[in-house]
Pyridoxal phosphate-dependent aminotransferase
Amino acid sequence: MSQMATEHQAINLSQGFPNFPVDERLTAILAKLATANVHQYTPMSGLPSLLDKIAVLTQQSYGRAVTPKEEILITAGATEGIFATIQALVKAQEEVIILDPSYDCYEAPILLSNAKPVRVALNIDFTPNWETINAAVNEKTRLIIINNPHNPTGKMWTASDFEQLEKLVHAFPNLLVLSDEVYEYITFEQPHISVHHRPKLWERSISISSFGKSFHITGWKIGYVIAPEDLMREIKKVHQFLVFSVSSIAQHALNEYIDLVDIKTLGQFYQQKRDFFQSLMKDTKLKLLPCEGTYFQVASYAAISEENDIDFTKRLVTEFGVATIPISIFYANGDDHQCIRFCFAKDEETLTRAAERLRQL
């Protein structure tokens, strides 16, 4: 869709990255570090001082104490963290539960492990269907991947969902939880619930976080993994031979920047953008679905067209000059609910121009 947006000079609300400037404090730190002695390898697991600060952030955000050296790993983006975790912990013939619609990078490392991805659809409102999830888990199931807040839908799990997950993990001693929480600080009316809030899950969970998402620096490709020491040892073995260590200057820059920024204000920042975009969209024929977290807004076009969502999004680009993402591509079976995804992590001018075009639908 981004390629089509370029070809047709469309406004790109498809791919999930911001188009506004990075915090000037961060770029100033980066400029200063360019001439400092920070350009050689960091330790394999990450810059020690940054690991310490992630531990503090985890304690402040979730009330969980983790040991920096043994339980935290800096990765080359959240995707590398997901890949290394699955490659380290999933063996041939084992099964991994993926909840659809889902991020497209979950399945590849499962297949590369000669394991079996088991796709389980969420409910029509994108909440977990615990009846179908429980039915899909068996003694071969090694991992269940959860994504909260959820991409592409912006839906968030409730406390009762985590209670169901805890029961499931208790019932299957071999089952681990891979919790993709890259949008953990981009939440709105309801507070984000993390696996870090749930002590019963600590010894069986691996969490994935993203500095790229949190600090609007997706191109830096830097994130981190938190896992109990026995699991982390295995993940580090893959990480070591995959990338060895992550960009040194990026780690040093974040190590300084994290002291300057209040990450708790990030949700407010994006909530203003969500509310602004939603106000612009009131005059369109699109029906906006609830957006509880992330910087994505899902909308139904059922009142406008009977086209499948891929054809509809293509026509949006070619005839109306706005690029979006069809939700069906996030399903293994291409399930089509006539919904599309917008990224509202854009400046107000971009969102305003896009809404003007969408009013013509």
Observations:
- The chain has a mean pLDDT of 97.
